[in-house]
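This part of the workshop introduces the protein records we will be handling. As an example, a complete record with its sequence and its structure tokens follows.
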Amino acid sequence: MAFTPTDYLPYDFANRRHIGPSPKEMAQMFEVLGVKDLDALIKQTVPAGIRQAEALELGKPMSEREMLWHMREVASKNKVLTSLIGQGYHGTVTPPAIQRNIFENPAWYTAYTPYQPEISQGRLEALLNYQTMVSDLTGLEIANASLLDEATACAEAMTMAQRVAKSKATAFFVDENCHPQNIAVMKTRAAPLGIEIIVASPDALEAEKVFGAIFQYPGTHGHVRDLSAEMEALHAAKAIGIVAADPMALCLLKEPGAMGADIAVGSTQRFGVPLGYGGPHAAYMATRDAYKRSMPGRIVGVSIDSHGNRAYRLALQTREQHIRREKATSNVCTAQALLAVMAGFYAVFHGPEGLKAIAQRIHRKTERLARGLEEAGFKVEPETFFDTITVDVGLLQQGVLRAAVKEGVNLRKVGETRVGITLDETTRPATIEAVWRAFGLLRKDEDFAPRYRLPEASIRTSSYLTHEVFHMNRAETEMMRYMRRLADRDLALDRAMIPLGSCTMKLNAAAEMMPVSWPEFAGLHPYVPQDQALGYKQMIDDLSDKLCKVTGYDAFTMQPNSGAQGEYAGLLTIASWQRERGEGQRNVCLIPVNAHGTNPASAQMVGWKVVPVKCDEKGSIDLADFRAKAEQYSDTLAACMITYPSTHGVFEETVRDVCAITHEHGGQVYIDGANMNAMVGLSRPGDLGGDVSHLNLHKTFCIPHGGGGPGMGPIGVKEHLVPHFPAHPLEDGIAGPVSAAPYGSPSLLPISWGYIQMMGGEGLTQATRVAILNANYIATRLAGAYEVLYTGHEGRVAHECIIDIRPFADSCGITVDDVAKRLIDCGFHAPTMSFPVAGTLMIEPTESETKAELDRFCDAMLAIREEIRAVEEGEADPENNPLKHAPHTMEDLVRDWDRPYSREQGCFPPGAFRVDKYWPPVNRVDNAWGDRNLTCTCPPMSDYAEAAE
């Protein structure tokens, strides 16, 4: 018998690994849709007038093995020295148990933001641990679940202070000892809001002239100052006191709350989170209880479920920027959840005794280093310190810095005559000796007995981390089991489809994730000399070039470290360009009501007036209203912000008209890139008339969501806007920086770069086409049972569809919440609820889901429709039915059953797996109870028992 070769390509990443439906399954889906092939569907869906003329060419796609080999070659160009630069970034030890079980575990990094609390109990508990850690260390009553980085947290604290202060002053005081990147980002945020920044020594503070003040603790050059007197003066003037504090230092030093601070911010990076050339890292914010409702970001709170059991959920102003739009106080819609979880587990892993011991060791090492330099005649400042010293070397500065590099150590250049040194938990005796050699000294670490040189007035006397979770048995077996228990309480992408519209929960391939942990990417300080980061430069340059080809823009900046930051950076870029051309009076931003939810808040943050534009009955921009508003504000129109395809899931055919009208009246066009997963390879925003767009690399380009962050939101612009990009945080530019690090969170970029290299232009285009196929398949299968709210002119949706649940509230009292919770019983995360239209579900399956998973979801939705019909027709009790009691727990299954439907119907509906069923750990969470009884730190176990009674 003759041999018959196969044409199967086992290493074809795009078609065999990333894209879910097989060619055979696609053919079956075409039959359901009534189309011949994918080309026919795209022709019906994407208007011919917006399609790009040429195919996307990005070079030959690589296999996973080829990509990893290439990534290794590029990574080897980074030189990983020991960086003692400090400035808010520190070497740290990630406990291997945390690296393997959290950082590299898809159960944690593929989870979505915990808006559905019943299936997020594990990561909510982990984030509550983090909040408790922050609250304890800072001595303030309430903390949020993380912010983007320390510099933006400082800026958020500044604007929060302005909101809550009783002072009528318009100036804000900034301690000159703050890290320079923190000062730079605060200046950027302050300028469009009309806040005057006063940078000076704390001794020069005139409290009556400011609404608030921020101090670095310890200072950027190592000084430790008791700020009690400054806080007292600020309070006497009805102003707000803020401390940017190093949490490791707080293990030994007096906490901000004890000094009278109202707000504390900082970075938890040194709690086990790699440097990563600047990010991602979890910033923290804590405040007094009186200001909790004004704090930006997410807050995890404790509540109860419908049976009185303990349950966690997001509390208070969750997604405030979506609800309040241009009246929002912040555009923050994300956090650094995965990194906060790591930092929280670092505290659980070590406990208070371990953290204090680590802090003591860091300080003792610094004291020995300082003593050796002083004995050699060098002037070391300050006299007392925690981990940072500054050495006056006069004209020897460059020689010392170069000698240190030859010893494998980076030190900090301070002014023209000084050198800064910051030690950390990774510092070894050999490192200290290498620093001494750089200064010309030949000493041994063992020459010096351990001593302490902490400022006596600032030594901490209060306890911290007293909750039981920080005192658990820290045997690795127990730690591993605790992490596993929490992970098992969640529903992440490693278990099931997460069909969230606008959020693109697609495959995060293991091969893309692997380089993030490599020391060549993880071990670099963001301010190392450029010749030590040539691998990063090659990657960033090539990724930027490829994103330009994808989008039609001329240049990209990677600095924004979230989608909302990208919006803000893009609008600042436009505002800077308008000012340079003498059009600084332009301050009106047209935003259609179908735009992304953070857009109005971002416009408000750059000092613009938001003018809403209506939509027509099809959910598209009302062109007549848009033209009228543009004409009305022609002299002051700065920009318009549109989302394409729209948040309603439709390719609008008037997008070129909208862009042309905006340009005609002197404005610039911001095209939100949240829905780029429907465009890559088919249409380029830069060709449609866009001047700037941000891309959510954590959506379209495969960086995972991590339970609510990390993210990246780089912006692409047309050539005329390039000079107005955000500046380097330590360098002057036309526009100021928006993030603490020059490239935002660059250790995430290997994920997107690897994805693009393995997909190639043809693979990326096919991914877009299949994302549209999968969305239309779901819309077609659900049509008739549910109304698909918006479609294009040929009845097709883009990459997502909105189904209307509102009629059921009128017909039988079934709400969108009931449907969402019932989907949990079926083993699914609910689609996006009530956004952009209240009472609806927005579904986005992505290209990564197989036909089997799509069918499982559709079967579940159709079965839920039949359960709704039973209530409508009187066959099921309006208040005692599977939808109203959803989700059902294993406890429901085994307790006494007194419901009119069977245990099987309640617990094993269509779609649910029989063997590997996901059981939610709690019943429906009572959000109102949680807000009435707000608890945002880990309460004692006795409180839970009382709540259950």
